[in-house]
């Protein structure tokens, strides 16, 4: 279906967010954010709470709507088709079958008064036109795929009857049911204990490998992405500070904020010592400082930083927005 829509280009990135601006009242919480992800790739979007990473994801999913918020500018393109400029009905149909979201708490996505199997089966009935019986069979298959033990029996259970980890698996089942091309996972493991976190991340990776899905993983935890991300986008105060292949970011950050996030990862050899933190707090999005938004917390700040830095290309697939990037990366 996407092939027949205006702007379709098979050579364009699978998902490209381009110069996105999002406002909530007077606060511009996303300022010119851009990134792209390809089939089979994992892109980690990193940043503290309030960095705009989740709002960007919600805007991509069409979940930012007036009167609370609005997309002031920008584009969200799937293979070149701009979702923000499609008629509502085309956008809804295209989105339902190509892009899905996993929330931090699966309860956000699940209806508490309907059995989980029914909720998944409804997707097959509405979007694939399957009969009630066929849809239920497919729902059980998907629950089985995300390793819900006794899937056929548990399909009749309600969301509150699942543990946190199992409920997150149900949320993943709901997201992958229609075999989307892109999955956006917003802090999918934050509410879970460490063992379950690892299981969920492994499950997401397996699904991604088997289906060639693009995964946009939103997290505040650089430790979580070290093993899974191909590329990393670091956001702060509504802007992209740095983006690069993951291995390069970890080996040689080129932005003081990235460097500070890396410094805050717990490390076994530093056990017993206080965890490094980033002093200060992000600026108020309704009244940000002029100049670099990280200026008040940055140990590299100098007079040039009174002017907001524009992102510059510093290597293949690598950009940073910092006047002192050469000092930071040791070049
Ligand atoms: Fe720090 Fe200046 Fe770079 Fe901003 S532009 S991160 S204040 S060095």
Low-confidence stretches: none
Please identify the structural class as seen in this structure.
Answer: alpha/beta
Bound molecules: iron/sulfur cluster
Mean pLDDT: 92
Strand order of the largest sheet: 6-7-8-3-9-10-12-11
Strand content: 15-25%
**What is the ordering of alpha helices and beta strands?**
EEEHEEHEHHHHEHEHEEHHEEH
Count of strand segments: 12
Detailed description of the structure:
- This protein has helices spanning 53-60, 88-98, 116-128, 132-145, 151-154, 164-176, 194-211, 222-225, 246-251, 256-263, 325-329; strands at 15-24, 27-37, 42-46, 70-78, 81-82, 99-102, 182-186, 214-219, 231-236, 239-245, 312-315, 318-320.
- The longest helix has 18 residues, at 194-211.
- The protein has 11 helices and 12 strands.
- It is 31% helix and 22% strand.
- By secondary structure, the chain is of the alpha/beta class.
- A hairpin with a 2-residue loop joins strand 11 (312-315) and strand 12 (318-320).
- The chain has a domain at 253-331.
- The radius of gyration is 21 Å and the shape is globular.
- The strands form 2 sheets. It has an 8-stranded mixed beta sheet, with helices on both faces. It has a 4-stranded antiparallel beta sheet with strand order 2-1-4-5, with helices on one face.
- Bound molecules: iron/sulfur cluster.
- Iron/sulfur cluster binds next to loops.
- Iron/sulfur cluster is lined by residues 256, 292, 294-295, 298, 300-301, 305, 309, 322-324.
């Amino acid at each position: 279906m996407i092939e027949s829509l205006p702007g379709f280009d098979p050579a364009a990135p699978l998902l490209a967010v381009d110069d996105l601006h999002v406002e909530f009242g007077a606060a511009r919480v996303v300022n010119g954010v851009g990134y792209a992800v390809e089939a089979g790739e994992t892109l980690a979007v990193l940043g503290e709470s309030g960095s705009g990473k989740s709002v960007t994801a919600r805007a991509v999913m069409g979940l930012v709507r007036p009167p609370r918020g609005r997309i002031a500018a920008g584009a969200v393109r799937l293979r070149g088709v701009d979702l923000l400029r499609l008629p509502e009905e085309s956008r809804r149909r295209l989105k339902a079958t190509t892009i899905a979201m996993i929330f931090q708490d699966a309860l956000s996505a699940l209806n508490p008064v309907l059995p989980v199997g029914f909720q998944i089966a409804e997707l097959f009935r509405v979007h694939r036109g399957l009969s009630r019986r066929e849809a239920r069979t497919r729902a059980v298959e998907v629950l089985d795929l995300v390793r819900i033990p006794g899937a056929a029996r548990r399909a009749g259970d309600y969301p509150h009857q699942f543990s946190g980890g199992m409920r997150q698996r149900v949320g993943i089942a709901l997201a992958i049911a229609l075999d989307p091309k892109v999955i956006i996972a917003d802090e999918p493991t934050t509410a879970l204990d460490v063992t379950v976190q690892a299981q969920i991340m492994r499950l997401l990776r397996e699904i991604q490998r088997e289906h060639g899905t693009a995964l946009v993983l939103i997290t505040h935890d650089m430790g979580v992405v070290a093993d899974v991300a191909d590329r990393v986008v670091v956001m702060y105060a509504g802007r992209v500070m740095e983006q690069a292949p993951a291995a390069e970011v970890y080996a040689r950050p080129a932005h003081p904020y990235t460097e500070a996030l890396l410094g805050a990862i717990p490390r076994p050899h530093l056990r017993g010592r206080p965890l490094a933190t980033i002093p200060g707090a992000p600026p108020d999005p309704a009244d940000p400082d002029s100049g670099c938004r990280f200026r008040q917390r940055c140990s590299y700040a100098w007079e040039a930083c009174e002017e907001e830095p524009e992102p510059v290309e510093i290597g293949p697939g690598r950009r940073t927005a910092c006047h002192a990037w050469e000092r930071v990366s040791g070049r």
